[in-house]
Design goal:
It is built from 9 helices and 5 strands; from the N terminus they run βαβαβαβαβααααα. It has 205 residues and is an alpha/beta fold.
Length: 205
């Protein structure tokens, strides 16, 4: 299967619930992988494609919150949906603070669960897009030398060549050459465009 296809990972220690959820997601057209024990999922390398995780809160040996933490440590980045008949408010808050996108109390309808999965997959798409954009910008800005970085930041503040030269203790002509190199390396046409690019990088970092 291509890692470009979203996959729903389901973890529940009740085999009948697990089968039911797996069938339901498959009928709805999702790629699905089911685990009756949390450690079986942890034995896998982190999934690098799009997807989400649906897990029960109360499971033997490793409960849902512990699995959530273990998955994060192992490098899993997919959004998590908890379903539980035993959840309380503090537990739900803890799960959401740790990055869960939904905490659904049992009994949960198929419609509620499918809607939660769609929200999780949308969250995953947004996060993946942001990561790709951050990596692109980091690669672009990494081409600047330390001095060009200084010029870049002063350009982003709207300073003219003379002002930048005074700040850096150098000649305005030298700054003019560095300004052109910065714009060329960052594939921008103006200081205003550069400032927006830098602001975007800082927002994503």
């Amino acid at each position: 299967m291509s890692q470009a296809e979203p996959k729903v990972f389901v973890v529940d220690d009740d085999p009948s619930v697990l089968r039911s959820l797996g069938r339901m997601f498959e009928v709805e057209g999702y790629a699905v992988e089911c685990f009756v024990h949390p450690r079986r999922m942890l034995a896998l390398p982190p999934w690098t494609g799009p997807g989400c995780v649906v897990m029960d809160l109360r499971m033997p040996e490793l409960n849902g919150l512990e699995l959530q933490e273990a998955l994060r440590r192992a490098g899993w980045a997919q959004p998590i949906i908890f379903i539980s008949g035993h959840g309380d408010v503090p537990t739900a808050v803890r799960a959401m603070k740790a990055g869960a996108v939904d905490f659904l109390p049992k009994p949960v309808t198929n419609e509620e669960l499918l809607a939660a999965v769609e929200r999780a997959l949308e969250r995953d798409r947004e996060a993946r897009d942001a990561r790709r954009e951050r990596e692109r910008l980091q690669a672009l800005f990494s081409t600047l030398s330390p001095r060009e970085w200084q010029v870049c930041r002063l350009m982003a503040r709207g300073l003219l060549d003379k002002q930048i030269a005074a700040e850096l203790g150098t000649a305005a002509q030298t700054v003019g050459l560095q300004r052109r190199r910065v714009l060329e390396k960052l594939e921008t046409q103006s200081a205003v465009e550069l400032a927006r690019l830098l602001e975007r990088l800082e927002a994503l970092s």
